[in-house]
Amino acid sequence: MKTIISCLLAFFLVNVAIAQHSQADIITGTWLVQDGSAKVKIEKTNGKYTGKLVWIKAADKNTKPILDTKNPNPALRSRQQIGLMLLENFTFDGDDTWIDGTIYDPDSGKTYSCKITMKDNQNMEVRGYVGISLFGRTENWKRSQETTMR
């Protein structure tokens, strides 16, 4: 009897771990930012979630690459914005929210604390803030089926 209970308990714990793992990975994919001007691809790397800029609407009209000219580090101002890591170090908190990450804003060159909350499989809220979450701004991002707009 103890063996059966032990097996059932182990089975239950493994299923809970698998369900939580797949729930955590729902954030992965390509996301269109609120104003439609850019797309960010979110991936899981070494147990953390990161997101890099994969498309900028303005780049479709410009023949020159769009550079990270507002970066506070002068040595980085000549790098292209496409490919920039905008989201870093997010962890899943088990409640449809990813926390303890940062978001880089190439328009200002500033990095903010950030949390991400899934509203449903196709929509999420990205909140950048300074200090505590009360002092910040929230954007709604939509899942994109394409990695670029072309």
Describe, in plain words, how this protein is organized in 3D.
By secondary structure, the chain is an alpha+beta fold. It contains 1 helix and 8 strands. It has an 8-stranded antiparallel β-barrel with strand order 1-2-3-4-5-6-7-8. The N and C termini lie far apart (61 Å). The relative contact order is 0.16. The model is unreliable at 5-21 (pLDDT under 50).
Concise summary:
The chain is built from one helix and eight strands, in the order αββββββββ. It has 150 residues and is an alpha+beta fold.
Structural class comes to alpha+beta
Q: Which percent bin holds the helix content?
A: 10-25%
The CATH topology corresponds to Lipocalin
Number of domains: 1
Q: Give the N-terminus to C-terminus distance in angstroms.
A: 61 Å
Determine Rg (CA atoms, Å). Answer: 19 Å
Mean pLDDT: 86
Major beta-sheet overview: 8 strands, antiparallel, barrel
Shape: globular
Spatial sequence of strands, sheet with the most strands: 1-2-3-4-5-6-7-8
CATH architecture: Beta Barrel
Q: Count the DSSP helices.
A: 1
Percent in strands = 35-45%
Q: Low-confidence parts, pLDDT < 50 over ≥5 residues?
A: 5-21
Mind telling me the CATH class?
Mainly Beta
Multimerization state: single chain
Number of separate strands: 8
> N-to-C SSE series?
HEEEEEEEE
